[in-house]
Structures are given as C-alpha cells and as structure tokens.
Amino acid sequence: MIDVVKVDFPRPCPAIIEILGKENQACHCLIPADSGKACGLPVRTYGATSFIDDHKGIIEYPARNHGVGRPAHD
After folding, report:
1. Which of 1, 46, 50, 66 lies in disulfide reach of 35, CB 3.0 to 4.6 Å?
2. How far apart are CA 52 and CA 63, in angstroms?
3. Of the candidates 23, 28, 22, 36, which has an alpha carbon nearest to the alpha carbon of residue 5?
4. pTM
5. Could you tell me which of 49, 7, 42 has the C-alpha nearest to residue 28?
6. Distances in Å between the alpha carbon of 51 and those of 3, 44, 59, 61, 72?
7. What is the rounded CA–CA span in Å between residue 39 and residue 23?
8. Cα(47)–Cα(60) distance, rounded to whole angstroms?
9. pLDDT tens per residue, range 8-61
10. Which residue in 44, 62, 61 sits closest to 53, CA to CA?
C-alpha cells in the first residue's frame, strides 16, 4: 500500500516542517515505510525519519519495491 499525501506548497509548510524540519521543506519528497528497501538510492535523514527528495530516487523506489513502472524517459 502506498499513501500519497498532497500538501499545499506555500512556505513555511508546517505539515512538512513537522516531519522533515524547516531545512527540508522542498517538495517533492518520499518517505519510505522501510528505508532498508531504499539501498543505493539518495536517502537523507532528519532525526529518525529517512526520506528521498531526489526525483530519480522518488521514481526508482516504488518501481523496485511495488512493481510500479518507470517512465520511458526522465
């Protein structure tokens, strides 16, 4: 199961700051439920939370772990 949460983009963005801190409020980001499945991807951390904010990593994680197709180009 994948939960997608859309948050408004204005800064500051309290919903993202609460999870990833003020310095990491750039959109888009993916917070994997199991960061161990993100091996080799550009994972960053804030406290105990791991996240991916690189567009290629965001595409690759669900492709590897959830059978989601990759785009023909990026």
Report:
1. 50
2. 14
3. 28
4. 0.81
5. 7
6. 14, 5, 13, 11, 24
7. 24
8. 23
9. 777 788 888 999 999 998 778 999 988 889 989 999 999 999 999 999 999 999
10. 44
Torsion of CA 55, 21, 12, 54, to 10 degrees: -10
Give the count of beta carbons closer than 10 Å to the beta carbon of residue 18. Answer: 9
Task: Determine the straight-line distance between the first and last CA of the chain, rounded to whole angstroms.
Answer: 24
Residue 2 tokens read as 């994948």
Separation between Cα atoms, residue 15 and residue 7, nearest integer Å: 7
32, HSE (Cβ side, Cα atoms, 13 Å): 25
Rounded to the nearest 5°, which phi and psi values hold at 22?
Answer: -60, -35
